[in-house]
Specification:
By secondary structure, the chain is of the alpha/beta class. The chain has 2 domains: about 100 residues, no CATH class; about 220 residues, Rossmann fold (3-Layer(aba) Sandwich), CATH 3.40.50.10680. The chain is built from 16 helices and 10 strands. α2 packs antiparallel against α3, α7 runs antiparallel to α8 and α9 packs across α10. The longest helix has 27 residues. It is elongated and about 110 Å long.
Length: about 425
């Protein structure tokens, strides 16, 4: 016997064994498979009766001398469809039950999933709480999300891991991963859990330690981020803007002596009283991460903000190649202005000031829409001020105002309102990208 014949027999035997596994007791699908089979047999009877009637034959003798009438055939057809259809519905319900959330229906889940799979390709650049807030809302509309995150963070847990282990800071990436997770309940809370100082791990979050461990195991930070995304079952991607170990440097004019000083380190910049004049990265020419550039070029929509203007948004844009990709992309470009100013970075800034800072560093970027909050009713904590709109912005840009402040944390965006505004503005300018 030839090797080919042996391989064919093994293939058929393996397929037969897999088929028999569907008959295993306890999986709850056999009854529905049987119901579908019964429905198909009844449909076969309908076809046989229809063929007999159309050819004037009388080869099928029905019991009790029942006549082969059109009414009978229609009744049999309807019964076969109902039985087979119900069996099919319950069969797929049994298959999908482990993946359904309580209280949801199979068809609704499938429809929602398919709609999100065909959703717009959106790339959001930034970091910190602002970017994760935006992603938490956008994942309700699309699975084709890409977050491009700064790796200039050098404070807190991320800074310690960066210094001690020599890895890129995982903090902002961790926040975006958890925001994109399908399960933001227990697993996400565990990933975000931060140990106390008495635990002996310097107050690190479990997610940061997890990404650090995977980096050591896989030998690759980007692979560690991808594997973390699989653990959290995210839809979308979180990418660093560069894989180089970069630091953020700011030129600041001090408040008291009006001296020009250079402040090194993302965490130290907001602590220096004064006005930020200029930013740059050291080393100054890090290579951009190629998948991040590719995502920008393939996007339908590119979003900058919300987030810390100088320490979250601009560090991404200072990576050579990122801005060029944004300018080359045919996607719409939105800028989302922060709800409230950040002490040490944007004290006293209006909406137009945020846009001007980006233009100052990156003169070629032009935004199709600038989105601003216009709900100033909630009371802000002491020392926090609203980012106010201005007529100058309206004269230079297409500006959209909406009540976007979160009721519980008014210095942040309401993720549901913000994401709905973004999708509405995108569809207003492009039409629904998902035609089905």
């Amino acid at each position: 016997m030839s090797d080919f014949s042996v391989d064919v027999k093994k293939t058929y035997r393996s397929a037969y064994k897999r088929l028999l596994r569907w008959l295993k007791p306890g999986i709850g699908v056999k009854r529905w498979l049987l119901m579908m089979l019964v429905g198909l047999l009844i449909f076969a009877l309908f076809l046989a009766l229809e063929i007999n009637a159309s050819h004037g034959l009388n080869s099928i003798q029905l019991p009790l001398h029942i006549a082969n009438t059109e009414t009978l055939r229609i009744t049999i057809l309807v019964v076969s469809i109902l039985i087979a259809g119900y069996g099919f519905y319950r069969f797929y319900g049994a298959l999908l039950r482990p993946f359904l959330k309580p209280g949801t229906f199979v068809l609704d889940t499938i429809s929602s999933y398919q709609k999100k799979e065909k959703g717009p390709r959106i790339v959001a650049l930034g970091g910190g709480t602002g970017l994760s807030t935006l992603l938490r809302g956008l994942k309700q509309f699309s699975h084709n999300l890409t977050a491009i995150v700064t790796v200039a963070d050098d404070g807190g847990s991320s800074g310690q891991l960066r210094q001690n282990l020599g890895i890129l800071p995982p903090g902002d990436i961790r926040n975006c991963l958890t925001a994109l997770s399908n399960d933001e309940e227990l697993l996400t809370q565990v990933f975000q859990y931060r140990f106390g100082e008495r635990a002996g791990v310097n107050g690190h979050s479990l997610g940061n330690l997890f990404i650090s461990a995977l980096t050591d195991i896989t030998g690759s930070f980007e692979e560690a981020v991808a594997e973390s995304g699989r653990v959290l079952a995210i839809k979308g991607r979180v990418l660093p803007s560069t894989l180089h170990d970069v630091g953020l440097v700011a030129e600041i004019e001090t408040s008291e002596k009006h001296e020009i000083v250079n402040v090194v380190g993302e965490s130290r910049i907001p602590l220096t009283e004064g006005k930020i004049r200029r930013l740059w990265l050291e080393p100054s020419n890090p290579f951009p991460y190629p998948p991040a550039v590719q995502a920008i070029l393939n996007a339908n929509l590119i979003i900058l903000g919300p987030g810390s203007l100088y320490t979250s948004i601009l560090p991404n844009l200072l990576v050579p190649g990122i801005v060029e990709a944004i300018n080359s992309s045919k996607a719409l470009k939105f800028f989302i202005c922060n709800v409230a100013n950040e002490h040490g970075e944007t004290d006293g800034y209006h909406c137009i000031d945020h846009v001007k800072v980006i233009e100052q560093h990156l003169a070629d970027i032009h935004f199709d829409v600038v989105i601003c909050n216009n709900n100033f009713e909630p009371k802000l904590p002491r020392g926090v001020e609203w980012v106010m709109p201005d007529t100058q912005l309206e004269e230079q840009y297409s500006t959209y105002y909406a009540p976007l402040a979160d009721k519980e944390f008014p210095w942040r965006h309401d993720y549901q309102k913000l994401s709905q505004v973004v999708i509405d503005l995108l569809e207003e300018r492009t039409g629904p990208l998902n035609k089905s």
